[in-house]
Design a protein that fits this description.
The protein is mainly α. The chain contains four helices and no strands. Helices cover about 90% and strands about 0% of the residues.
Length: about 130
Amino acid sequence: MKDWTEDYLQDLIRYNNILKGIPEENRVQRIEVLSKQLVLIGKLAAEFSERYKKIYATRKRVYAEAEIAAPKNKKAHAELAVIDLREEEATAYGNMKRWTNAFESTKEEINALKYKVRIDLEDGSSRHGA
């Protein structure tokens, strides 16, 4: 199965460069690009969440196997058996949290822009109606 992470990152960078070229006042276009980014960020968040969960499951299995196999000091042997996995798990958890946070903050940015567009429309309609 192909790892799409790099492709998603490249697309995200491409959209980010497009976003940099869109003036702040052009809110609707910014919302469109941010929405495309949000899809990619969501895919990355899901990918890193899956990686974290797989490492977690592996750590639990290795721990149990080491605990069962140890003749004495079972918990100590099991803990030593999963040290590297714990570090890998921590890194994966950090990646998962970063992308989940990026998803939430991008969602909030889109919502803020939508609110500003709504205000702009109301202001425009009230001026034209007067």
